[in-house]
Amino acid sequence: MSLPFQNNLNINTTQKIKILIADDNDHTRKILRLTFSRQGEYDVFEATQGIEAITVFNKEMPDIVFLDIMMPEMDGIEVCKLIKSSSKPHCFTIILSAKVSQTDIDAGLNVGADRYLIKPFSPMQLIEIISDFNKNSPKLTTLTPPTFEISDPALKTFNYRLFNGFNEERLETLEIMLGSQDLVIKSIKAFIFDFSNVVLDIRTLLISDDLHTASRTLHKLKGGAADIGANDVAAVASEIENCINRSEMVNVNSKIEQLTQKWQILDNTVKSLL
C-alpha cells in the first residue's frame, strides 16, 4: 500500500524543530511529547496509525519522525520507506520499537531509518539523536539537544524503592525525562487505568481465536510496561506474544496466569501507595 506525497512541501523555515511521534501506544507518545515539549524548541505532532502518520507528515513536513513498527493500517517499516522516498529534503527518521532481534533492526535500517531505538529509551539516547540530526541537517543553525536535570530530592513525595513490581532505576530515569516525580506518578496511574482489563481482554481474544488482536494487545502492553519500568509484566507479555506469533499455544494458559499475578502486584502497589 502506498500513498502519494504532496508536491507543495511546507518546508519548516522556523527555528523550532518539528517532531512527529507515530505510535499507537499512548504512554510512549506521552513520554516523548512531554520530554520534548518542555524544552521549548520543538513543535510536537502525533499519530496513532500508519496512514495518519503519512497524512501528518504531508501537512507538517517534520524534521524528525519517531516511528513504532507495529501500528494499525500501515506499519512503521512501510511508513519509513514512504518518508524516505518523498521529496522532503531531509527527515531524520527513528524506528522506535520493543522488537530487539537483529532481523527487526536490519529491517528498519534497510528501508532508510537513520536510527533504530529500542524501548524503553533513555535521555542520553534522545540527546544523541538530536546531535545526529544536527550533523546531518542541511539547516545553517544547529539545535540545542534536550537538557535533563536531576529533581530536587526535597521535592519528592515517594520512594521508588517501595514500588513493588516497578524498576527503581527506570522510574528515576523517567523522572529525569519528564522533569518531575508528579508526572511519573501520573504516568503510572494512567498506565494502570488504561490497561486495567488487559488480562481479561487477552483471555477473551484467545478464546475467540483472534490471535492477531491478542498479539497487538500484548505488544502494546509490553511497550507501555517497559516505558514505566514494569519489567516483569513486559517480560511475560513478550513471552506470550512470541508464543502466539510462533503458533506455540501449549504454554500460553500458564503464562497468562503468570501475567495475572504480575499485573496484580502492580495494581496492589498503586492502590496501596498512590
Structure description:
- It is a single chain.
- This protein is an alpha/beta fold and 274 residues long.
- Helix content is 53%, strand content 10%.
- It has eleven helices and five strands; from the N terminus they run βαβαβαβαβααααααα.
- α1 links the parallel β1 (17-22) and β2 (42-47).
- α2 runs parallel beside α3 (76-84).
- Residues 1-13 have low confidence and may be disordered.
**Count of helices?**
11
Q: Assign the CATH topology of the largest domain.
A: Four Helix Bundle (Hemerythrin (Met), subunit A)
Oligomer designation? single chain
Helix content: 40-55%
Our measurement of the CA-to-CA distance between the termini, rounded to an integer number of angstroms, reads 46 Å
CATH class of the largest domain: Mainly Alpha
Mean pLDDT: 86
Q: Report the strand count.
A: 5
Strand order of the largest sheet: 2-1-3-4-5
* Most strands sheet: 5 strands, parallel
What order do the helices and strands follow? Answer: EHEHEHEHEHHHHHHH
SSE topology sketch:
Layout: E1 17-22, H1 26-37, E2 42-47, H2 50-60, E3 64-68, H3 76-84, E4 92-97, H4 102-110, E5 115-118, H5 123-136, H6 168-178, H7 181-194, H8 198-207, H9 211-227, H10 231-245, H11 252-273
Parallel strand pairs: 1-2, 1-3, 3-4, 4-5
Helix pairs in contact: 2-3, 6-7, 8-9, 9-10, 10-11
